[in-house]
Amino acid sequence: MQNEKHTDKTDAENKTSSIAAIAVSTALCLVPIIFGSALWQKLPQKIPMNYGIHGKAGTLAPKWVIVFLLPFYCAAINCVACVLLYKNKKSVNSVLFYAVTFFVPLLSILTEALLLIKPLGIDAPVHKIIPALMSAFFVLVGNYFPKISKNNVIGIRVPWTLKSDDVWRRTHRLGGILWVVFGFISLAFSFTRIQYVVFFTSLAVMTIVPVAYSAVVYNREKRSCP
């Protein structure tokens, strides 16, 4: 009886902390509105929304889109993603849950800050910082890939992995290794001339190889079954 009460108490505490984390992370996505409002008078009427691989400004948008609309858009995406992840939390390591929960806010704050200070004449290599941050995130997630149980929200979710627990396990073990290794490789080449070549090559390997491997393993498993 005491063990059951302790378990219920622990579950309640975990639920409270998870919901609090989702609320805080979603609120953090709106932080850029504060410094965007503070810089409002100094900002030009139109601000680049993106930059090419050589740092050249891309699509221009009214500053109210960058200052107000973009943070709310990030907050909405974060909230939906976190709620879906929370519903499958039993399948995800707690460290990975909090890492994913706070990644979008971190990316939102950093991206917004870079987009706002660039038009003010402050030289910020937006096009190089974001891929570097993504590479670090790949390393972090890759460490916990093998610990992800089969679910419909996060992981390498293709028909073959979802149909077999063994295929899921083996695919995520390989995927974890590839994400860590190529995440580090991509991170090592950050801020170099070949950063984007390395980043997209790494991304292709991290995506294609585990999926192809899962198909091979599934077909072997299927042929071995009587």
Give a verbal description of the structure.
The chain has eight helices and two strands. With 226 residues, the chain is mainly alpha-helical. It has a two-stranded antiparallel ribbon. Helix 1 (2-28) packs parallel to helix 4 (94-117). The chain is globular, with a radius of gyration of 21 Å.
Count, helices: 8
Mean pLDDT: 86
Give the helix/strand class: mainly alpha
CA-to-CA gap between the ends?
46 Å
Global shape: globular
Quaternary structure of the protein: single chain
Q: Rg to the nearest angstrom?
A: 21 Å
Low-confidence stretches: none
In spatial order, strands of the major sheet run 1-2
- Fraction of residues in helices? over 70%
Strand content: under 5%
String of helices and strands: HHEEHHHHHH
Largest sheet: 2 strands, antiparallel
Topology, number of strands: 2
List keywords for this structure.
mainly alpha; single chain; globular; two-stranded antiparallel sheet; 3% strand; 2 strands; 226 residues; 71% helix
